[in-house]
């Protein structure tokens, strides 16, 4: 084959460094400094040497702790011999962080590099992550990067038509990608010569240059003197002068200029280490919670600043995002680090969650305190009527409920007191239900439940009356529970009294369609003693050894707003408690889970066989979705997964008709799934040994995820495709809680009900609203969720702005909205720079 270009092999000197893995972050911190010092020494000793390094977080560590060395690095960057790649904060797991988290890796990582080193990365660089989701090409292009280098999945895990290819995402974005043929480094010079010569032969066979990485890695180190002397020796040999000390930047620039004939791949880059999507439940649940809380904090902090001048907590929220991004590192998020490392992970998430909670509270208190809630006859505040509420006479107490999402949300609202009546801001009485509280304070152990409608990115005041009751109509489609049956106007749920499984789920609003092909919510126990922590070499977890059973069922809530049956089942020393709930007029079955897990080398899955033919499984991935084969392989997903297909649906006029039907599953903490034919299974927990790479197991090993954990999930049966199910919005609603503030009587400039955003297209949602990093405007980030083109109108009343925009399939758009209303709104990338 004819060779393109003069260089056959680009040798990439690097130092892969895991800041956390078999050590804690403090050791990684020290190793970064030592490795960077070593790299600077090599640059002085070998005039042709080029060093490549990624991760903005590492540079920040050096800047804050060794500023004199940071100055040297900056000089070498300016010379072009220290090459910065991978413009993310860290080398993250590329399946588990949310889409917006990837945007933040780029925003904070690239802007830090630009500000401190004068460059931004052009090459995405993630050589050790275990898999790469299919929307990454768009995320990379939105981040100022047009190429990507990775290693996993390796050739034995995924067949690619070529090691160099165009990688395309669902929206049509492309990056040039290169998969490493071998490791990103070497731990000794033995074998390095063979590796270089072997890679050169691959380049010759392919007709264009290849990259070959060298340098001691994992615990840092980088290129050694011996490495570089060997390379010098090889380059002196006859016919080997086409080997060059280089960088990924130089390699991709050369390839793009030469334009080799390479294939286009439109697929995800999976699968390696499939067990990592369900290890260490605590950190995965904390990640989901932190990602959504910080977005809520940004939105309401922005609104409080715009309307009332409350200072925006930029520094604190940036620090919170840095913690979350650091915890996205693949050996942290993947759950394969040592036990002690997760003490640090807990602290990082804890700080971020606390920062988010404080920002939310400050903003909401500022907003709610400015709402006009004064009632006639109130002269001054007094608590003569009640020790908890500020109600006077029977005037009611204002409760302000906020919605962070970009559409109106109807949801249950819990009031932490037993009350007689509730009205909305217009004075309309609402049905209510007394429910058990979490407290047992003498006889004070009851709360109140109502259903509310909260405007998009807005709020509504509800008036709560301690003693005054109102006549209300029976809620439409009232929920009820009796024995082992839950029912409303849309669903009927029958539980097996012996096992606690869902024996029958009937979709009454779709002609009495029987949703499940067998028992549902079946807690299957899987043997995984053959697995290491990562699940190396495995594709599936399907060796069932038992099921939870011996169930106890009890009606907790009989309706009419919510009916709940508690099911407690057991296996071995473990106990599974599921509170299965049905709201009035709802087609969603909601389940709150408390699991006390005591099994070792076991996995728990919840199984749902769906009554459809020719099933198709679709999973949420960061800022997108993907359809995967229903082959039983363990795969990652985000907040939701859907299985749809053809199914007989009774029709009173024509007997039966065949149409598309499906079941969506939403959760607030889990990321691992498998689908075999028509059976969907969610992985709840794994209990491998900490950081076990098929090691020598003895009685002193420690097992993961022992003890109590809590999470929730929702089942949504639906007619039509998954796009008709509302699953995307429901998933955000399930993971983004409404916020509440008890108030009292006061004058104010804000109304009792307000909407903060309006988007006309159902398939376009706004995920982020925040100040622009440059401080001269606002950022609104939206994305198309159904895979369908959309023309939409957007309105932001707080900014007195409205505009129209066209979205392509799965397209992400970031709008920069200038403070000056006369200046036009423009589209920018994740870095908040013009595309």
UniProtKB/TrEMBL annotation:
Keywords: Glycosidase, Hydrolase, Metal-binding. InterPro entries: Gal_mutarotase_sf_dom, GH38_C, Glyco_hydro/deAcase_b/a-brl, Glyco_hydro_38_C, Glyco_hydro_38_cen, Glyco_hydro_38_cen_sf, Glyco_hydro_38_N, Glyco_hydro_38_N_sf. It comes from the Bacteria. GO terms for biological process: mannose metabolic process; oligosaccharide catabolic process. The keyword S-adenosyl-L-methionine does not apply. One of its GO terms (molecular function) is carbohydrate binding. The keyword Metal-binding applies. Pfam families: Alpha-mann_mid, Glyco_hydro38C2, Glyco_hydro_38C, Glyco_hydro_38N. Gene3D superfamilies: Glycoside hydrolase 38, N terminal domain, Glycoside hydrolase family 38, central domain, Golgi alpha-mannosidase II, Golgi alpha-mannosidase II, domain 4. Residues 272-349 form the Glycoside hydrolase family 38 central domain. Belongs to the glycosyl hydrolase 38 family. This is Alpha-mannosidase.
């Amino acid at each position: 084959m004819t060779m393109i270009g003069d260089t056959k092999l680009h040798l990439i000197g690097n130092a892969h460094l895991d800041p956390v893995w078999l050590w804690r972050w403090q050791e990684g911190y020290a190793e970064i400094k030592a490795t960077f010092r070593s790299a600077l020494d090599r640059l002085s000793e070998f005039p042709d040497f080029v060093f490549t390094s990624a991760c903005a977080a590492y540079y920040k560590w050096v800047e804050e702790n060794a500023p004199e060395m940071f100055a040297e690095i900056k000089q070498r960057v300016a010379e072009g011999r220290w090459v910065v790649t991978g413009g993310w904060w860290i080398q993250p797991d590329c399946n588990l962080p949310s889409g917006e988290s990837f945007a933040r890796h780029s925003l904070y990582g690239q802007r830090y590099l630009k500000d401190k080193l004068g460059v931004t990365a052009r090459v995405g660089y993630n050589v050790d992550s275990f898999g790469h989701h299919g929307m990454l090409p768009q995320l990379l292009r939105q981040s100022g990067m047009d190429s990507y280098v990775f290693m996993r999945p390796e050739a034995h895990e995924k067949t690619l038509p070529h090691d160099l290819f165009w990688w395309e995402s669902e929206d049509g974005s492309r990056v040039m990608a290169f998969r490493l043929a071998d490791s990103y480094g070497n731990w000794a010079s033995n074998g390095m010569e063979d590796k270089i010569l072997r890679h050169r032969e691959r380049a010759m066979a392919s007709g264009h240059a290849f990259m070959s990485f060298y340098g001691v890695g994992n615990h840092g180190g980088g290129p050694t003197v011996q490495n570089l002397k060997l390379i010098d020796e090889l380059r002196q040999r006859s016919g080997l002068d086409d080997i060059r000390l280089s960088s990924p930047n130089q390699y991709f620039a050369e390839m793009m200029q030469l334009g080799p004939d390479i294939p286009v791949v439109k697929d995800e880059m999976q699968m390696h280490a499939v067990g990592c999507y369900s290890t260490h439940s605590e950190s995965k649940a904390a990640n989901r919670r932190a990602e959504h809380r910080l977005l809520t904090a940004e939105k309401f902090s922005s609104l409080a600043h715009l309307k009332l001048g409350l200072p925006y907590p930029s520094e604190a929220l940036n620090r919170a995002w840095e913690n979350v991004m650091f915890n996205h590192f693949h050996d942290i998020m993947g759950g394969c680090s040592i036990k002690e490392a997760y003490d640090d992970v807990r602290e990082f998430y804890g700080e971020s969650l606390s920062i988010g909670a404080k920002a939310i509270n400050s903003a909401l208190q500022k907003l709610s305190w400015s709402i006009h809630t004064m009632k006639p006859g109130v002269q001054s505040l007094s608590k003569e009527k009640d020790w908890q509420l500020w109600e006077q006479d029977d005037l009611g107490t204002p409760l302000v409920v906020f919605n962070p999402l970009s559409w109106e949300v109807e949801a249950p609202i819990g009031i932490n007191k037993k009350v007689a009546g509730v009205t909305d801001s217009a004075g309309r009485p609402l049905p209510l239900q007394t429910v058990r509280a979490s407290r047992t304070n003498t006889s004070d152990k009851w709360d109140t439940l109502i259903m509310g409608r909260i405007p998009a990115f807005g709020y509504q005041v509800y008036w709560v009356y301690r003693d005054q009751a109102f006549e209300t109509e029976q809620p439409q489609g009232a929920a009820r529970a009796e024995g082992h049956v839950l029912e409303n106007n849309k669903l009927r749920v029958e539980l097996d009294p012996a096992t606690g499984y869902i024996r029958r789920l009937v979709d009454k609003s779709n002609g009495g369609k029987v949703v499940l092909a067998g028992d549902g919510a079946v807690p299957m126990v899987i043997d995984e003693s053959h697995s290491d922590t990562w699940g190396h070499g495995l594709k599936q977890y399907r060796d069932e050894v038992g099921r939870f059973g011996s169930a106890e069922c009890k009606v907790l809530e009989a309706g009419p707003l919510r009916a709940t049956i508690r099911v407690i089942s057991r296996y071995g020393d473990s106990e599974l408690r599921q509170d299965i709930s049905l709201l009035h007029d709802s087609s969603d079955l909601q389940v709150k889970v408390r699991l006390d897990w005591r099994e070792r080398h076991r996995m728990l899955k919840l199984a749902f066989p769906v009554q459809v033919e020719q099933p198709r499984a679709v999973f949420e991935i960061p800022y997108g979705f993907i359809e995967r084969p229903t082959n039983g392989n363990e795969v990652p997903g985000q907040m939701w997964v859907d299985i749809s297909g053809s199914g007989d649906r009774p029709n009173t006029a024509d007997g039966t008709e065949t149409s598309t039907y499906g079941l969506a599953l939403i959760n607030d903490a889990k990321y691992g799934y498998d689908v075999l034919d028509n059976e969907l299974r969610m992985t709840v927990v794994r209990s491998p040994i900490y950081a076990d790479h098929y090691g020598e197991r003895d009685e002193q090993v420690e097992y993961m995820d022992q003890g109590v954990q809590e999470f929730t999930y929702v089942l949504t049966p639906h007619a039509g495709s998954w796009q008709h199910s509302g699953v995307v919005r429901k998933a955000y609603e399930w993971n983004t809680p409404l916020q509440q503030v008890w108030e009292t009587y006061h004058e104010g400039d804000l109304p009792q009900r307000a909407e903060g955003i309006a988007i006309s297209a159902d398939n376009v949602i706004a995920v982020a609203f925040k100040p622009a990093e440059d401080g001269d405007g606002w950022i609104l980030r939206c994305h198309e969720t159904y895979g369908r083109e959309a023309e939409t109108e957007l309105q932001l009343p707080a900014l007195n702005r409205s505009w129209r925009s066209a979205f392509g399939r799965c397209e992400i758009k970031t709008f920069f909205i200038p403070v000056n209303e006369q200046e036009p709104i423009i589209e920018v990338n994740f870095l908040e720079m013009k595309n």
